[in-house]
Records
---
Amino acid sequence: MNTLAAEGAPYHLGVRRMFWLPIVVSGVLVVLVLAALVAISWHSFARIQPVEVHSAHIRRLQAIEVHMEDVLLRGLRGTGRLDPKEMLPLGAEIDNLLATDRPDMSAAETTRLEQIAGLLRGQAGGGRPIDDLSTALDELRSLQDRERRVHHMLLSSVAKDTETELELSLFLVVVLPVAGVVALLRLRRRIEGPLNNLGELLVHLAARDYRPVPQAALDESAALVQPVFHSYNGLVERLRRLEEDHRNREQTLEQAVRGATEALLKQSRQLARSDRLAAVGAVSAGLAHELRNPLAGIQMACTKLRRAILDADQMARLDAVVAELRRLNTMLTERVDAARHAPEPLAPVHLKSTVDQLLSLVRYQVPEGVRLESDIPDDLTCRLPEGGLRQALLNLVLNASQSMENGQGWVEIRARRQGDAVLLSVSDSGPGFPAELLTIGVRPFASGRVGGTGLGLAMVRGFTQDINGELQLANRQPCGAQVTLRVPCPCLPVKNHAEGP
């Protein structure tokens, strides 16, 4: 959720910018117009003020001229002579005019005013005062004419500037707002179209259509809404990844549920087989218990018969029968113990002697056309349950011999050390295992041979599991089967074992 909020931040920022931009632009335009009007007014004020100052200067010149004309008229009405003291106030007025701080007063005007002031003080070279006053009056009038021309030029300049300022004000008040409105309308059209497209995209998004905005549309859209489209593309990509992760999780959960269901079904089948095996075990334990007494009687009778026979060959055969009866008795006892959950104890087993004894006894149970062979090093001794090992190998040899067609072929037992284990393999030249058995594995009561019980390989598998070993089934090329038992076998010291029972 935090990630989505972070990715949506540019989108909200773009939307806020989109709605605030027209308001900001309008505000800026208004401020610019007001600032321009203020600047124009200030400029007009700055141009009018010099005109007012110059008008006041001209009025002062006119007042001095009227005063001079009055003095001159009084002199002409009288004796025609003028007292110089009457001209002193006029000179003082000229001095006051010169003392006024006027930045626009030229040097020529200042010089002429100083000359006029000199005439009024009688400093013109000894002429009559009335003549000096008349000359000063002419100079003053000439100066006034010049100042009037300058004043007229100032007024013309102010009028021209005022006309320009009026046009500029009209432009700012009328043209600039109209241009701003037109620009805003065009901006609105450029924004409104992409926003409509965005609305259509959101409708598709509600239908789980995670198509992004095309790059061409991004290039053609306004720069104002491009951040919104980029944010939309980021949001769509994020939603698409989330949807994909959701589908992957659903598939993973479906696979997990399917695997758990298959495991439960397999366990159910195994439990059912375990129940059947337990029932078979209980029956076999009862049969074993009932068979031990007759076998003990047979064993005792064979022992007594051996003592009465002097033929060495017959004695060897009776010894083999007695040994086999003893093994059967031991095996039946183990079956009873297994039913009571009493495991067979481990003991050192010399593999070569054990296999040779086993093949000697099996020789009488297989067809004469089946050749029994062994290839076992003499130094292999392992701590194993001997009865279980003999029974497992016996089942494998009998199964292999019974699979031979026409009772012709060979069966071989090989053994090789592999680290802390020994690989015991039983190979034959028969037709090999069915493909179904290699695919599904060993199952009790499932046999590919007519008349088979399907318990031989199941017992071998149980033996390997009890000793933490492994069972592997394979077919040889071009024909034949091979069963490999991997049994734990740490290195033990080798002892001499006598051949025979």
---
Amino acid sequence: MDWCERRLVIEGQERTVYGFFMVLAHSRAEALVWRESMDQLHWQQAHNEGFARMGGVPATVRIDNLATGMDKAGPTGRVNAIYARYAAAAGFHVDACPVRLPRAKGKVERRIGALVGSILRKAPEGFDSLEQLQAFTDALASASARKRLCPASGESVAVAHAREKELLRGCECLPEIFDTVLTRKVRGDCTVPFEGRSYSVLFHLAWQQVEVRGGPGTVSFLHAGREVARHRRATAERVLVDPSHYEGPATNTHEPPLPLGKMGARLLEIAEAPVQLRSAELYQRLMEVAR
């Protein structure tokens, strides 16, 4: 898989868009996903959409040495930490291309030009939206798969791809996208610090390690590979607490916090009650009575 950058007419204006191109090595089935950026969030989202079009996730993915994928280039280099977590969650091994060896990703290099060139020839006037461009691209790729031949089997790419999909890992394993990932220790009050805020998690995780993933608008917390809490990200509030995190039966190591009691429950009820609105005339009549 690899990116391409093109200037296309969208909504009547020429814009720079980025195509994420993916080819399956056996059948040569392909997908081209258009994005407005190549940052980590768009990189992961393009993977998710590409795998969905392929009908599953392959065991190995060969990528170029771009920063969102590799911190240190080459097959013996170092995979970007965030991308490594994404790959582990999706269930594929990252195989980085050798440096300065274009033929190592020739299947992608050749087909990007062919498919994008076909788009430009068939729709020179451009597109009304990025969604329309994507739909046009998907239809073109599907038609091409029915005409091209799979070099390994001699059948059409579409027929070979139908069999190849049976060997791919299901797309239900694909994770939600995230641009930040780190490990934090849960504090004694069952909260986790992240980006200047405190987020509650389940009470029985106090003093244990959790993985924090910051995504677009949300932050999720994972323990033993399972999501244990989710909150809104980058809010005005500095402390975000879910009361249900402090409820439930005791475990072998943790007792749930003491209940609020009658007074605490009443205070919470008052705090959550809507403000009662009264007209100004009511207060004027009260003043008349007071005189």
---
Amino acid sequence: MLDSTTSGHFSPEATILMVAIFGTFALFLTAGFVIKIRFHNSEFYPITWIVKPGEIRALLDTALTQRSKMRVSFVRDDPGARSTDSTLLSVNPRKGIELEMTSLVRANTTWVGKLVACDFRLRLDPRKDYQSFYNFVSPVLAVKKASDDFIHMTVAWPTRLELEQKRGFLRIEPQRSSILLADVWHESTIKAARGRFDFPATWGPPLLHMDPEIEFPALEVRNISGGGLRLEILPEALRKQHELFAPGGRFIAHLILAEPEAEKPTEFYLAMRLQNAYGDPVETGIKAFGFRIITFGEPGETPTAPMSWKNATTGVPALDDWTFRRHLSLYRLRGE
């Protein structure tokens, strides 16, 4: 190429070589521009995002079919912002998602336009006891009170769903040997005893008690998660205080759970709200209650220091970890 240029004579070989070099350079340059344009016009999403309209519609239709509850909370900087459960009434890409909430929720038209975070879960494979958790954020479109005083709220159709795994929803049925102690108080009995909620020693005798020394306890812990408990109670224990076990009632539980991996067991103080009641004591001899954990107690820096209560909006981290470890140990025992 240099000889051909300096001599001023035409060289076919040099011409072919120059065309090949500059042609290749132009090809790479063009390809770079094309790739840049395509990357600029397309968006890259995390693998946990569902953005295809058809997939979003299919998942929300499945949630409606499975009657999945949707947990709703305002989008705020405060992680302790309260949330409430709602029921799906309808899903429509043009009209939005209509939710029904209990009349206890103080909803009003000032909610319109505000952003809410919605969480729900689905069991996509009926053959497996595994649930997937989804979240989306949308503005409120409308709020109205139905004829039955229930609140109907419509939120905008989401542009994406985010797949998430909340271990706080992971429930296990613990072995009885794992529950070293379970005491339950109703908050009204603590107040009647002039007890202080930050000093457990002042709460008086528990309403219900269970420990390994009792062969037939009035209380059994049937399942447990970082976000709630399900307790079974014998009718004899309910007769005297049955009026306390009404939906919405507030209770405090003291649990001591075996921790095979550690040198000592794990202790929990949980403030709970009674959410659901199951079973008929007349037919089955027992009745079960589902409790949602609202706050959890943390001991003070010294034995005489008061206990502090922390919000459990996303579950109790230590109880969540304990549940997860028990879940793994059960899988190991089964050889899975």
---
Amino acid sequence: MTGHEITTYLDEEMLPYTFCPGCGHGTIVDQLNAALVELQIERRKVVIVTDIGCAGLSDRFFEVNALHGLHGRSLTYATGIKLANPDLKVIVLIGDGGCGIGGNHLINAARRNIGVTALVFNNLNYGMTGGEHSVTTPPGAITATTRYGNLERPMDICATAAVNGASFVARTTSFDKNLANLIVQAIKNEGFSLIDVWELCAAYFAPTNRFNKRLLEETLVSLGFATGVLHLDERPEYAQAYRAATASQLDQLPLRGQPLEARFDHHLKSQMSFVIAGAAGQKIGTAATAFARGALLSGLWATQRDDYPVTVRSGHSLSEVILSPQEVRYLGVPRPDVVVALFEEGLKKVASRLEQLTEQQRLYINAELLPVKTSARVIPLNLRGKGLKKHWSLMAIAAVVRHEDVYPLQAFRQAVALNKAFAEENLAAVEAADGVITDN
């Protein structure tokens, strides 16, 4: 509850609605606003998620948090938001087109019973792109893509959600004076709620099919699609159940979700970018992560971007790391200051980059891979006989940290030790880095 009564959640500066005259979308938006006023939820605790389509225009009219994404993907965004912060009331405004394109997401939201509310603006066609038929277009209906009448059976959105585990399912029309109360019930439900709201598309479907309120209601009856609350099922909401299931295991995780406090002083004057090039399965990403965490422990900003093929366990493995005394706003590394090349697979991947390097850049390279074509200063890494190959990446980064003097080696040691399950062997690899670089 808020400190004072909220009389509307709409942003009056954005009104009037941009929907076509006679479109049911405006009525649904009004009823959603009425439901929110009834519930008196803090604006900052409400998130409206939309995607492409006329329904996707709706979020702009509300003074709450909003996310507008790709067609059919609104339920995936909503799931992520709810998992990140279960205290939020997440409301998805999706069209019948979005339910068709994102049908798999609808099924998975229902079976997880994720605590979001989905309002389906079901106008029986793709109203934004020209009136093509959708998954809910009734049999025999004329659309831009079914000129001789639709031959497909329409998808029963409510039955689909209910049979897959949604805990609240209802169907109605935009003409229903009880719609706001239904929305209140849906939002109050802790699990996945869905209301399939049938309405008229004034631009395409209604004119082409001479469709009106009476025919809309008769079509529901002819299809055997009941209205009202169709399904109620009390079972655990996914975001809360997930937190409860994992709470007892948090202390056992290698790294918990908490900030790394700066404990060391860095020596970096300006931004530096690094590319670590190796082979899949050789802990390239692990070493890069420890490198970035060591920077954080030294009061620097750090980013990491990894690249590897879909095969994962074969081929190249690349990590791009940016360290900076100031905030990093762009993750791209077009020309790195330092390249660390450890295995042939990675060297092939960065070969063109090496040719572009100048004398100001450095190439730290496994001595066994020499010679290479580059104008950069070449610093050989003598890794042979220094332990298992899977530890070479940590050895190399430890050597680079010391040689480049970007931050203290002790910070890197502490970063490596954060992964408690492998701390002992990884710290041993760091200590084995002594003598890897003989160039001074």
